[in-house]
Amino acid sequence: MQNRTDLAVESYEEKNKTKINGVIVKEGNGITYVKVLNENGVRQIGKPVGEYITVEVPSFVNDTDIFDGRLGKISSILKNLLPPDCDNVLVAGLGNMDITADALGPKTGSYIFATRHISGKLKKEMGYEKLKTVSCVCTGVLGETGIESAEIIKGICDVIKPSCVIAVDALAATSAKRLGTTVQLSTAGISPGSGVGNHRYEISYDTLGVPVVSIGIPTVISASVISGRVGDSMFVTPREIDRLTEQGAKLIGMSINVCLQNGISERDLYALVG
Question: How far are the Cα atoms of 85, 123, 272 from residue 127, in angstroms, in the given order?
Fold first, then answer.
């Protein structure tokens, strides 16, 4: 039985970690690097061509201090995935704010330091001449807006012409131990809802015309993992899901800020958005 998962590392593990033609895997220091090279790799693990980096972090349930090195770790990985000279960034928070397990994207949006509205003169007066241009949008869900998230983001991209898009979304996993303890970053874009069998329009370079980096944290697992019943369509979350999504959103939002605005200290950035 192949379980639903958004994590490339879990798709690879389902192949019993055997060597796969078209897939490169490296592990070490709590980071797993999976690179899907070609169509054979796509067929084997069911993930699009691209890089997938999984970072193990302490559980967000007991999280109290984000200034413990994680911001630097994740922001450094993100920087390496973004295109060079990426000075105009659109951050898109995907998901439903009214469903806690799906609220990671919108909650992350509240921690993003948006700067597109700050003029050059004001930047100079603030002492932040090197601020990168950042915009943020939370797209809602099709049932609320009647518009696909991909269509909203595409429309915005056509107007503001970003260098890249960073898309944040809640993910599905097959292992309960990865809920709230894993962050996945990828250059392959994202299909919102794919992990729970509700595929929406893809958000990627192919659909937007600009590079897309996705970031997510697993918040749900399929009930079939627990029940053992094939085809069980229900999903379950940990009871601490409220804290998991809030602290996870804080870490992702702040990691994006630290990556993009390296002229401002972590604590000053947190003061601006926290």
Answer: 21, 6, 14
Number of domains in the chain: 1
Q: Dihedral sign, CA of 271, 73, 262, 192?
A: negative
In this predicted structure, which of 11-15, 21-25, 151-155, 201-205 has the lowest mean pLDDT?
Answer: 11-15
Q: Is residue 82 part of a domain?
A: yes
**CA 15 – CA 24 distance, rounded (Å):** 13
pTM score, two decimals?
Answer: 0.91
State the pairing for strand pair 31-36/50-56: antiparallel
User: Is residue 2 domain-resident?
Assistant: no
> What are the φ/ψ torsions at residue 141 (nearest 5 degrees)?
-125, 160
Alpha-carbon gap, residue 149 to 164, rounded angstroms = 16
Q: How far apart are CA 128 and CA 79, in angstroms?
A: 20
Residue 28: other Cβ atoms inside 10 A: 7
Residue 197 lies inside a defined structural domain of this protein? yes
Count of beta carbons in the 10 Å neighbourhood of residue 265:
11
| Bridge partners, residue 26, by sequence | 33
Q: Domain of 111: which CATH number? A: 3.40.50.1450
The residue behind tokens 């597109």 is 116
pLDDT in tens, 218-241: 999 877 666 556 666 678 888 899
Tokens matching residue 265 = 């200290």
Burial of 273 (0-12, 13-18, 19+ CB in 10 A): middle
> Which one, of 59, 62, 64, lies nearest residue 177 by Cα?
59
